[in-house]
Amino acid sequence: MANKQSADLRTLETPALWDRLDEAGRELMDIRFRLATRQSDNTTQLLTARRQIARIKTILTEREGEE
Predict the structure, then answer these.
(1) Is the CB of residue 49 less than 8 Å from the CB of residue 28?
(2) What are phi and psi of 50, to 5 degrees?
(3) Percent of the chain with pLDDT over 70
(4) Could you please report the per-residue DSSP string of 1-67?
């Protein structure tokens, strides 16, 4: 069973998923920058952002296979 985050992403249209992917990529870069400059100590944000990107890419790949 997919978790709630995946279920929420699956309800979005493909162009909206691409927008979310861009947004998540920018967020990941921001988190990496904050960690590198020691402005943040929360390393779990990095893992969360990477997982979010993986979820989105997985859904996009599944949809690509359906077409």
Answers:
(1) yes
(2) -65, -40
(3) 97
(4) ---HHHHHHHTS-HHHHHHHHHHHHHHHHHHHHHHHTTS---THHHHHHHHHHHHHHHHHHHHHHH-
* Nearest residue to 5 via CA among 23, 26, 20: 20
Please report, for the chain, the start and end positions of each structural domain, with discontinuous segments joined by +. 19-66
Q: Tens digits of per-residue pLDDT, 25-46?
A: 999 999 999 999 999 888 899 9
The whole model's pTM is what?
A: 0.87
Q: Do 62 and 14 contact (CB within 8 A), yes or no?
A: no
Identify the pLDDT of residue 1.
44
The per-residue pLDDT for 65 is 84
- Whose tokens are 């690509």? That residue is 64
> How many CA atoms are closer than 13 Å to the CA of 37, on its beta-carbon side?
6
